[in-house]
Design a protein that fits this description.
Length: about 70
């Protein structure tokens, strides 16, 4: 499942940094709490800063099943 993480509030300790406000995360998690924990960990691991908060929602993926 792909998740759009948006409205990211970075904890930059007052430093001026160029960080994304939105990213797409590919995850195998399904529960809201599991997705939130993975997203927070992924953001900090990949960008070097913790987050105060963010919003997220599932990204609709096209059905890849071939037509008969």
């Amino acid at each position: 499942m792909k998740v759009r993480i948006h409205d990211i509030d970075w904890d930059t300790e007052g430093e001026e940094v160029d960080l994304p406000k939105e990213v797409i995360l590919d995850t195998d998690k399904e529960g809201i709490g599991d997705v939130a924990m993975e997203a927070a960990d992924w953001l900090s691991d990949n960008h070097g800063w913790c987050v105060n908060g963010f919003s997220f929602n599932a990204v609709e993926e096209p059905d890849e099943t071939p037509d008969p």
